[in-house]
Amino acid sequence: METSYRVMILGTGPAGLTAAIYAARAFLAPMVIDGNEPGGQLTLTSEVENFPGFPTAIQGPDLMDQMRDQAKRFGATFKTGAVTAVDLSHRPFKVTVDDGAETFFAESLIVSTGASAKMLEIPGESEMVGHGISTCATCDGFFYRDKKIVAVGGGDSAMEEATFLTRFASEVTIVHRRSQLRASKVMQDRARKNEKIRWELDVTPVSVVHRQGQVVGLEVRDNKTGVVRTISAEGVFVAIGHRPNTDFLNHQLDMDELGYIRTAGVTSQTNVPGVFACGDVMDRRYRQAITAAGSGCKAAMDCEKYLETLE
Question: Element (H or E) spanning 110, and its range?
Fold first, then answer.
């Protein structure tokens, strides 16, 4: 089946849904493709306390459902599936969903496919995401006041996350699988000077220990002796990097060395006219729901102006 749209939005996190709201209110009747993770990373967060307008907090999935309903109210339509290929060589752009199950065409595209946090992929991790396992200190650190937590990673982001978490936690243990850190000297020095930070280097995470739905520790193996032991903790923050979801683009858009889409100046315009990017797929720095939503607004407005030039 082949259908053509004026605007197609790829991804349904805060960026994609905000773009859908703005595009729909501009009477562009956007078609939104859900993606592999409908709702994005926010659906893995239990409580969201830093999104404006919700003073008593809101569950991540509930926030995404409300944004989706808002977009539908103005005329956005949604399609369940994942975009597996696009052809940006000519307009209208060709969008392939679920390896050819369906094909769509669009005069413009808004790419908001996000980035996926790299996980440890150890037993106990996946089932405790949002319940003691987190990939965002800024989002979830507040919930760990006066508690012992673990931060896994050896790069700048891990040092930054661990240092930030000391504002709340009674103790933060940095776990890294090598004896040497990858972080810059400045970031290492800052972390080492923090009295709340402990160090567990040259150990490999083995499993997340949890009881009755609560994380109670991280099991690690000493790389030299092979001895397995448990580090007591009520939360584990995984800070080993993110991977932008851009494989399906097959390098048709300009990207940086990590695969994040490059945009022109303060706009959302990519190097291909009519293709716009917003959210974590182009933001390697902030990665917050509110910044993603703001960039989704920009993408929809840029897209609207682009379509006006065609007319």
Answer: strand 102-111
